[in-house]
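The instructor's notes for this session suggest beginning with a concrete chain rather than abstract definitions. Hand out the sequence below and ask the class to guess, before any prediction is shown, which regions might be ordered.
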Amino acid sequence: MKIKKIWFSDDYIYGVDESGKEYRQSLLWYPNLNGASDEERNSYKFGHDGIHWRNLDEDVSFESFEYEDAEPTPIQRFFLTHRDIDLDALSKCTGIDVATINKYINGFLRPTEIHSSKIISFINDYELSASQVTIACEDCAEYKSK
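After discussion, reveal the predicted structure:
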């Protein structure tokens, strides 16, 4: 499959392949594109395997348009929009190792019901303020600010 045309709308990148099939992906997967201006987004080149934005240092593979998880899960969405979260603190509070958490965020693994519950509890304990991100976890003896 090869994407022949792309465009952007709201929080998505859209593509059409050579057969005319339309695809979309959330821009949350691509932080450099998500924060880019229209001019920056329109400065791309099609390559053999995907699309490249040299000035943004961002690549989107043609294959990624076919992924089942084009839209982040609620847990993924939270972490993709709060990139400043201290994953070490999350790991200490939940007992889930950082490598596994990263696999959940990037969609390489789906969290078990128990892990989902622990992560959601942690997220609910977050307090966001204008000056800092404070991480508080009821199950964790530590209280850590970033």
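Then share the key points. Confidence is low (pLDDT under 50) at residues 128-139, 141-146. The radius of gyration is 18 Å.
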